[in-house]
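In this supplementary section we document a worked example of the pipeline. Step one takes a protein sequence of length 215 as its only input; no multiple sequence alignment statistics are reported here. Step two produces a three-dimensional model, which step three serialises into structure tokens for compact storage. The input and output of this example are shown verbatim.
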Amino acid sequence: MSWAPLETGPWDVRRLSAASCANAGLLVLSGVVAREVTLAGDVSTELLGTGDLIRPFGGGGDAQLLDTTVRWNVIGSGRVAMLDAGFMGRAAQYPGIAAMLMERIEARARRLATVKAIAQLTRVDERLVALVRHYCERWGRVTGEGVLLPLCLSHRMLGELVGARRPSVSTAAATLERSGRLVRRSDGTWLLRDRDTAPRPAPESVAQRRRLVPT
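The serialised model returned by step three reads:
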């Protein structure tokens, strides 16, 4: 087993194309990786992190009825471990390791199913809240202001994650920010608040109310 660093930015996985099919794949030890699938000009993104098992190589012989392309982008630096044939041979003596790897695969499938369900919600603002809440379960950090998601996710990427156009995401995000439920911080990270803890608008003064009454 060997490991390699993940540097923020596009990840060129073509150098892994010669990897043996006997390799189990790459185990993400740390960091966050985006797997971006393009179909008919639209992009669908999946976020992967610590503990996920990925195989960004092989599969070239599969029949392709859909014309898709896959890109990999590292949005949080870290490192991955190659579970090569030697490692798998030694691990065969320990059934618990194989069971753990299967659990990693199943956990990824469960998360994909959850994101798919989120993308079916009618309102884009509710999709955004549900998605950030889902990611906060994995990467979030509780603060005095709410739950912080320390990932720099642009409106474009959020749209690729929830199946919405970027302008719709921007409009929904602005509405949520005004309500205080979901706030994008200056460093690009996101702060999630429950309805009960979101700050409420200051009450109008008597003078302000009078100005709203037609004379």
